[in-house]
Amino acid sequence: MAIGLRTLEVDGVALELKVVRKRVKNINARLHGKTLSVSAPHRVSVRELDETIVELARKLVRRLRADALNSDGGAEAIARKVAVRFPEPPEVNEVRFVTNQTTQWGSYSPQTGIVRLNAALRQMPPWVLEAVVAHELAHTFYLEHSPEFWNLARSVCSKTDRARAFLEGVTWLAAAWDDLPPVERSQLVGGGSD
């Protein structure tokens, strides 16, 4: 049973890595605080082990972050507050911030009552979160973005149009950030002067 110790950085998180080779079928990993403990069969190559460790560490760090994101219950309170404004309130059983939702701001499953929100929304003003929840719940009544859909969303959240413009700006900036000259970047983060 050989034990290897080293430091591994995954998604900006520094982890102490403990690897033990022993008689197991598969590579297993557990995260305890900032220590990643891995057990691996003797037959697995160092290259395969290293690749698998990074993959498992990413999954565990993301799960840890998702748990932390969802721990305060504030988003669930907002979602329930928004739901009761509908003529026929959709059921909200759970609200989750997720890190794997990269092409949309939110989703809602009427079957489970689960609202999923892009984790980036957690850093945005509450009225943006409220508008995204209203948007997702409005899809319970209208699947498409028809005039009736937008009227319902606006009746439930008066800041729907403002939040939509805000999110379009955030999306544009995220896509353009790397191409902006440093001077423009500094102006956008408050480092510039008029």
Concise summary:
About 40% of the residues lie in helices and about 20% in strands. The protein is of the alpha/beta class.
Features:
single chain; 194 residues; alpha/beta; Zincin-like; 2 domains; four-stranded mixed sheet; three-stranded mixed sheet; 7 strands; 42% helix; YgjP-like_metallopeptidase
- How do the strands line up in the largest sheet? 1-2-4-3
Structural class: alpha/beta
- What is the strand content? 15-25%
> How many domain units?
2
- Named at the architecture level, the CATH assignment of the largest domain is 2-Layer Sandwich
Mean pLDDT: 88
At the first level of CATH, what is the class of the largest domain? Alpha Beta
Under CATH, the topology of the largest domain is which? Zincin-like
Name the CATH superfamily classification of the largest domain: Metalloproteases ("zincins"), catalytic domain
Distance between the termini: 65 Å
Oligomer: single chain
Low-confidence sequence ranges: none
Organism: Candidatus Sulfomarinibacter kjeldsenii
InterPro entries: UTP_pyrophosphatase-like, YgjP-like_metallopeptidase
Pfam families: YgjP-like
Protein name: M48 family metallopeptidase
